[in-house]
Each structure stands twice: as structure tokens, then as C-alpha cells.
Amino acid sequence: MTTIPTVKLDRGIHVMHLFYKIDRVRWPLLPSGESAAVRDRVQALCDANASVSHPRIVTYANVGGKADLAFMLYAAEFGQIGQMHRALEACFPPGTLQTVYTYLSVTELSEYMSTEDDNRRMLTEQEKLEPGTEAFDKRFAELDARKKEYEQYRLYPELADWEVMSFYPMNKRRSGNDNWYLLDMATRKKLMGGHARVGRKYAGRVSQLITGSTGIDDWEWGVTLVAHQIDALKEIVYEMRFDEVSARYGDFGVFYINLRLQPAALWDHLRL
Question: Are residues 272 and 41 in contact, defined by beta-carbon separation less than 8 angstroms?
């Protein structure tokens, strides 16, 4: 048996998005009962990888015709997510599954997150609290707890299991005067702060996961948005595009919109 090397990140986990089409010519030629057997194998694999964070496999139906099936995979080890990917494909008879798009990324902390010094400065300059006072210490503890909770989510996400999932890759632009990477850190951090404020307006309607892929895949980030309704996704992406970070410095890839379905419902939906 081949030994898979253990490859972990210093912090965070690996995330893979997979999109497939079913070969509609070969599928009807499968032996009687084989479609149900495939469904059961997919369900068993999902059941074996059903942690709230990782390892985890989540199944979707792609809506809009770009694909049929969509999956999100989460794993701590690089070899493990590779094995999950191949185990998932092995559930299907040869030639019946056609790869449409795959994306590999990792969870990460944003370099633009507020630091402890940022929080201290905000409390003294904006909230006019005096360091060393009870009021200052209480507010600082609240901000620090919120910071740690956010870091935990970014690195080891428990993404809400809502009805709709949208995925798209993106880059920061490097074009003439619109080169994100020629801006100084203070400017980039200020711009991202405004970008984040737009996102927070959709709390409770949209939950997001930003994963990094520089040097790993063809784009720099993967953006996963989940919501209860399509209009929430449309509104947040539309409003974000007026923010300078997106309007001037953002390039976006193909959007995939998906409906969260368990394997049994997925098979019924796709009429497999």
C-alpha cells in the first residue's frame, strides 16, 4: 500500500471546490441499480466526512447549466483532501463523470485584520477611553474575544449549511495605475476596512468564506458565499462592486451558483 505523506499547514485547512457534469449518454446505459449504488457510495463518503469543520464533504446541485454536481471538501492534510477527491470520483463508473472546474485553496487570516494596537488606538481615539481604566479594559477584552473568534472561523470554518452557495475566484488587479500591489500597507488596509463594512451589513443574510490560493491555483482567492435567498447574494456582490476595492482593483472569474441538496435529493433533482 502506498504511504501518503503527511502535509499540514502551519495553521488552517485545505478547501477544494469541485464541479462536474454527468455524461447523459452513458448514464442511462448503466446496469439496473447502479445509479442507486453510486448515490449510496456518495452518501457513505459524506457520512464518513461529516465534521462541522473538517474533514467534511458537502453536496450541491449546480443551477444554471454550467455543471450538474458541485462539492465542497475540507481537510487538514493535503494528502487527505487529495484522497477525498479521488474517493469521490471513484464512486462513479468510469466515463460517467466529466470535470467542469476544480479549485484548490487554503484557509488563511487576512493581513488587514485589526491588531491589538489597532484596537487600543480605536478605543482611545474614537471611543475616548483612558487606558488602564475599567471601561477600557472591558471594551478591549470584548474586542480581543471577537478577534479570536473571527480568527478561529477564518482558519477552521464552520460554514453555515444554508440553501444556496455561490463560488467564484478573484484577483487583485495589477494594471497600470490600478495596481493593488503598488499601494502601501496603510492604504490597502484602509480600503479593505471599507470593503469589510459593506460585508457586515449582510450579517444574518450572507455568510462568506474567503480562501487563499496564491501559488496554489490560477487565481489568488476563492470566494464562497452562502445564503437563504438568491437576492441576498445578488445584492451583496452588486453593492461590493461600487466599493473601490472591487471597482478599481478587483478581477472576477466565473460564478457558480448552487443549491444545497443531500445525495438522495440530489439524485432526484438531476433525475439520475
Answer: no
Q: Evaluate if pTM is beyond 0.70.
A: yes
- pLDDT, one tens digit per residue, over 209-245 is 999 999 999 999 999 999 999 999 999 999 988 888 8
Q: How far apart are CA 265 and CA 272, in angstroms?
A: 10
Polymer length in residues for the chain: 272
The three cell numbers locating residue 108: 488563511
Among this protein's residues, is 168 annotated catalytic?
yes
| E strand residue ranges, the chain | 14-22, 56-62, 69-75, 97-107, 164-172, 174-175, 178-179, 206-212, 221-227, 250-252, 256-260
pLDDT digits (tens, 9 = 90+) for 52-97: 999 999 999 999 999 999 999 999 999 999 999 999 999 999 999 9
DSSP structure class, residue 3? P
Task: Using DSSP, state whether 93 is helix, strand or coil.
Answer: coil
- CB burial readout 54-90, b (16+ within 10 A) else e: bbbbbbbbbbeebbbbbbbbbbbbbebbbebbebbee
Contact 169, 255 (CB under 8 A): no
DSSP string over 133-165: SHHHHHHHHHHHHHHHHHHHHHHS------SEE
Residue 110 CB-half CA count within 13 A = 19
Radius of gyration from C-alpha coordinates of the chain: 21
Cα–Cα distance for residue pair 194/23, rounded to 1 Å: 45
Residue 74, phi then psi, degrees to nearest 5: -130, 135
- Identify which of 72, 250, 225 has the alpha carbon closest to the alpha carbon of residue 171: 250
* Maximum alpha-carbon separation in the chain: 75
The CB density around residue 130, as the number of other CB atoms within 10 Å, is 10
From the candidates 103, 168, 202, 249, give the one annotated as an active-site residue.
Answer: 168
